[in-house]
What does this fold into?
Amino acid sequence: MIRFRKTESDNGEHAILENLGALYGFAMSLTRNPTDAEDLVQEACLRAIKGLIQNGIKSDPKVWLFTILRNVWINQWRRRTNGPEFILLGKSRADGGPLQEWLSDERERPEDHFDRNVVSGKIRLAISGLPEVFREVVVLRYFEGFSYRQIASILGCPAGTVMSRLNRARAELRTILNEKNTALMVLRRKLGSG
Amino acid sequence: MEVDKHILDYIPLYLDDELQEGERLAVEMHVKGCPDCRAALDAERELISAIRNARPIYKTPASLQANIAKVVQTSGSRHNLVSSWPLIAACAVLLLAIAVFWLAASTSLRGDPSSFVTVAVNNHARYLNGQLPLEVFSDSPEKISAWFAGKLGFNLKLPDYPQGPKPYHVEGARLVGFQDDYAAYVVYRLNGHPISLLVTSDSVARPSGGEEIPWEGLRFHFQSVAGWKVLTWSDDGLTYALVSNLEERGQASCIVCHQDERVFRGLQPSQKSM
It folds into this structure.
């Protein structure tokens, strides 16, 4: 099929390059492994370019890209498990991959930011332990800044479901953070006495 | 107490900026006079802030960046080469090829004065008479596309010749009126022959009349108006009209210069069917 080229294609290609870092971050939260994340982003971008040529973009470019990446991830997961997947809402997935890569980032860790980094590490650990359905809404809302409606579009579910999943995720994280406060006090005491 | 519980349900939505203006004001008014809900709001805000601060920062692998950039670039080139340029080339070849047949048939179709075809022909004639000065002069389709950006109710990117010396050149462009809105008017010159391209949204103009020529999933309409050869078609939300007065010898030159035998072969069935 021949087609005149419209700026929509340019916008789509630009959106892919512009959101590559965000896509990689989301892929890391799903796969929790740099190699798998890279493969996932690459596959998603190839699908996006193919879709761009055939159909153009029908929604917000970032939402569109994240939707594609998540769909690719689900398809890969289904292929691996060779059957339908049943996600337990109350349990975290035990075989979600190595956590260490996802938990550590490349931020500088100066001494005066010690507390904040400890807290952030705790939160990342807590998020990584959430069931996938909760983890992904937290990542999409608070790490990527999507609205409930945009998240609903990415996940293919009602906005009310997004809201209830976020509520449950926050409740679990709140519990973990309360435990963190106690642990920090102990840590400070140890450092002070050392 | 019941009101407090209601407000507590709204606090996450308030912090996530998911409330309507009236609901936001209701939450703000309530927490001003309710220390318990104020404390709940502060605690929730602190939690959300802590979650946001915990966002991992990754450096996208250089290999990934390089691979995607390469794929995007290849896609763009392929798009230009396979998707965009052949359409212009096809239209030019179609115009040339059909001209012989059409002159022999000596059929003259006159369009509605307000139709897209008539406007395209009038603009072409006015341009040749010096009555339609161009607003931008450039041989660069990219620069002309940039000039149109934001001026039209639709997006338009003119295709560029993929590589090597161009067999044609772009003279320039301007906005022209059509159906209470602007349309894009671009002038090309091929072997000395001026070709006008008029583009508008397909919501205000659809090709019709003349002879319908299906080719590669598109339906071209060819007609002769006041001696000008006009080819119109719609594709991907836009409607196009090419107007020219091409000579027979231009056909061979066109094919040689465009270096795209696929286009010419693709046109053969259409030409035979005429």
In short: Strands of chain B lie at 136-137, 168-178, 181-190, 193-201, 211-215, 218-225, 228-235, 238-244. Residues 2-53 of chain B form a domain with the Arc Repressor Mutant, subunit A fold (CATH 1.10.10).
